[in-house]
Structure to design on (232 residues):
């Protein structure tokens, strides 16, 4: 069975600085997706970034980028130029690839990120 | 992106009563929806996968008779908490996959408080 591990329950960063959230996973599959979701105090889950395992290039979305190391099964999230609005819980998630839309997400326990002004 | 709504956003009920939570995909059709439960400062726990026109698939340890799921149309799934007790108090979230990557889009959640 697949597992996702986030080893940092809490992190903090100064506004405008850069922070990296770590995520490791375990799987025997070769094709899968990895996601970072953000859950702000409103508790609305928001997709931050997606990485396809068969793509070597690291995904980037504006100030958010990932360091995807497939062999090491590592998927860290880097937030550049941190803003107060980035304060939230961040969840790393894994999903098997393949046909069908009923494939469930495997979730990490989350990292609570505080942004200090 | 795809939009998922949930209703109600908050509900308070007495112990022993039943509560229905609706999850709607507003601008896309969803043959599958997922129901999660989340305790404060914890991760999401998948309860069940809702399948349009067929029975839901429940995760191990989730009582199907207590958490009734009905996916009667391509845009609506409902979760009914039957005979609710205080330990059922939690935050319930639904999601539905959409798009080329079948990404899950989440509803805003429902906070259930059972007195």
């Amino acid at each position: 069975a697949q597992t996702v591990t986030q080893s940092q329950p809490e992190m903090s960063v100064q506004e405008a600085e850069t922070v990296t959230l770590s995520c490791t996973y375990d799987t025997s599959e070769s094709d899968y997706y990895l996601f970072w979701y953000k859950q702000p105090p409103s508790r609305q889950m928001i997709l931050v970034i997606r990485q396809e395992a068969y793509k070597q290039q690291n995904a980037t979305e504006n100030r958010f980028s990932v360091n995807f190391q497939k062999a090491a099964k590592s998927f860290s999230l880097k937030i550049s130029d941190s803003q107060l609005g980035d304060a939230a819980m961040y969840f790393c998630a894994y999903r098997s690839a393949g046909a069908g839309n009923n494939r469930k997400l495997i979730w990490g326990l989350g990292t609570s990120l505080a942004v200090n002004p | 992106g795809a939009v998922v709504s949930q209703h109600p956003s908050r509900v308070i009920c007495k112990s022993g009563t039943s509560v229905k939570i609706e999850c709607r995909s507003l601008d896309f059709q969803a043959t599958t929806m997922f129901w999660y439960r989340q305790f404060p400062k914890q991760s999401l726990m998948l309860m069940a996968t809702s399948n349009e026109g067929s029975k839901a698939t429940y995760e191990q340890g989730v009582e199907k008779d207590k958490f009734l799921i009905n996916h009667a149309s391509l845009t609506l799934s409902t979760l009914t908490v039957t005979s609710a007790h205080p330990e059922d108090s939690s935050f319930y979230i639904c999601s539905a996959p959409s798009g080329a990557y079948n990404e899950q889009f989440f509803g805003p959640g429902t906070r259930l408080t059972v007195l």
